[in-house]
Amino acid sequence: SRQSRAETRCTPNQSPHTEQSYPQMYKLLCAVLLLLILNCECVSTRTNSECVLDWDHSSPDRRPDASRLRLAHFNAEWLFSNCSSAFSGCPWTEAEALAHISRVANYLDQLDADLIHLAEVHDCATIELLLSQMNLGPEYSAYLVPGMDTATGQNVALLSRVDPVSAPWRVNTRTAYPLEQSSCGYERPTAASTTTTTTTATATAATSRTSFTTGTTKHLFARFELSRASEQLPPVRLLLLGLHLLAHPTDPERCAKREAQAQNLVAELRAQLREDEHLVILGDFNDFDETLEDAAGSQPISRVLFSLRELWLSEPSAAATPPAENHRTAEQRQALPLLQNVFSVGQHRPFPGPPLVGTLAPRDTYSAWWDKNGNQVDDGREEHTSIDHILLSNALVDATLLAQYEHAFFEQGDSKLDSDHWPLLVELNLTAIGRAEILPPKAMPPFALYALVAIVLCMILILISMTIYCVRRYKRRRANHRDPAEDAVELMSMDALDEDEDEDDLGSELDDAEADASLSRYERWKKTRERQRAAF
């Protein structure tokens, strides 16, 4: 009937909860989307430099020769101004610590390098004291990003005559060990072996290993833009990684942890490195390089140097050998690595710059003294190993003028205040540096791909839901707010239809009754319909 049609059209909403359910669904979808975004952001967190010592230099580049760049690394061995009892292993008394800093300052003055990476540094106060005792100290700015080594309190620091383009930073990511493709021979202990009775100290150590993940506690990243002697040459863009990895090269568990530490750094390098940037990785790797023959003939049991040279990421689903897509085939890697140990190159061909003449002999290839027999005497070649390295991208290797171990600074045993490491020095000819090689494309991590798919699906669901909600709301509003002219036209058409039907019925009734009585009934019925229309 007409009235039933009108009631259907004018009834607001039979379900009062339908309109409220859509905003609730939006809130739920947005919450899921937020959780996905937070999950992606929390995978890799970065910490910027918290220690910057700057002498208000008038120029951001204070190199004496703009056509050269001198890089140095030195593990200064416990460069602490005060060895607190809270730190295990520091060998100095307070007076010895100050004398040690003075000797290190003298060595750094002799190095006269533009970028100096230091390992085993305590804090900013120690660096400030070191610079104050250097004749060249006012030329440098110092950067230190506090690490996570709570046992020793050691950090790495950077002294630079060139101001970085942004604040140095470090990453706090952790990686599970051993890696799927680990070569260390370490296996996680079974549950039965970890529940045996132990002393308090070993129980604490076992508890720390229950997660079987490790971070890279001592490292920093810095980005530089180096001008060259000629204004016609574009600046050299450089990404530098300074590191100090876990000690003991031949210990299987520490080897596995060191491989995981390298993975943390490789992941950040692959995320940060730009196509127009050259790469430098230097520091105390605490590991041997299979491409370098050191004095003791050391061979690595880990893949640390391989991972960093190839920027190689271990993949749980990969086979025992690194897959070609991660990044290159074995033939490509053998033909030309992405990075090269500059001292390994020096063993095969001479560098043009003085003072080196000829290639670097294995007997002179060492950066650290390991007192194997504990007699506190340097017994020579068998105790000389190379665990400090400088890795350069290929264009930088081609521009290398010299690469040398600074053995002339001191001989082990001359003074106990010297370090158990020797400085490393490399000099580059910036005018000979060509275009930065294009590194392999950055592979999107699986978690990022899954998160991206989930975000796209959530956005599609939100758009569909909003469209349905808006259409239904529009229809309800149209039903509740009809145009009076449209209602009048519809009512007139309905009335005309009803009148035609009524006239047909009336004609049949007039055949059986008197016309006057039928007419009077028709008049009464017509007035009733007019009142109903007015009420409607």
Features of the shown structure:
single chain, 536 residues, alpha+beta, 7-stranded mixed β-sheet, 5-stranded mixed β-sheet, 14 helices, 18 strands, 38% helix, disordered N terminus
Question: What would your notes on this structure say?
Answer:
With 536 residues, the protein is α+β, with helices and mostly antiparallel strands. 38% of the residues lie in helices and 18% in strands. The protein contains 14 helices and 18 strands. Helix 3 links the parallel strand 3 and strand 4. Helix 3 (94-111) packs across helix 4 (124-133) and helix 13 (484-510) packs antiparallel against helix 14. The two termini are 14 Å apart.
Summarize the structure.
The chain is of the alpha+beta class and 536 residues long.
Q: Please work out how many helical segments DSSP would assign.
A: 14
Helix content: 25-40%
Most strands sheet? 7 strands, mixed
Uncertain stretches: 1-22, 37-44, 194-208, 316-326
In terms of quaternary structure, what is this?
single chain
The total beta strand count reads 18
Give the termini separation. Answer: 14 Å
Residue fraction in strands: 15-25%
| Mean pLDDT metric | 80
Radius of gyration: 39 Å
**How do the strands of the widest beta sheet line up side by side?**
2-5-6-4-3-18-17
Net shape: elongated
Derived from helix and strand composition plus strand pairing, the structural class reads alpha+beta
Summarize the helices and strands and which ones pair or pack:
Layout: H1 2-10, H2 18-43, E1 46-48, E2 51-53, E3 68-79, H3 94-111, E4 115-121, H4 124-133, E5 141-144, E6 155-160, E7 169-171, E8 174-176, H5 191-194, H6 200-208, E9 213-215, E10 219-226, E11 236-244, H7 252-272, E12 277-284, H8 304-310, H9 330-335, E13 339-341, H10 342-346, E14 368-369, E15 384-385, E16 388-393, H11 394-398, E17 400-405, E18 424-429, H12 446-480, H13 484-510, H14 515-535
Parallel strand pairs: 3-4, 11-12
Antiparallel strand pairs: 1-7, 2-5, 3-18, 4-6, 5-6, 8-9, 10-11, 12-16, 13-16, 14-15, 17-18
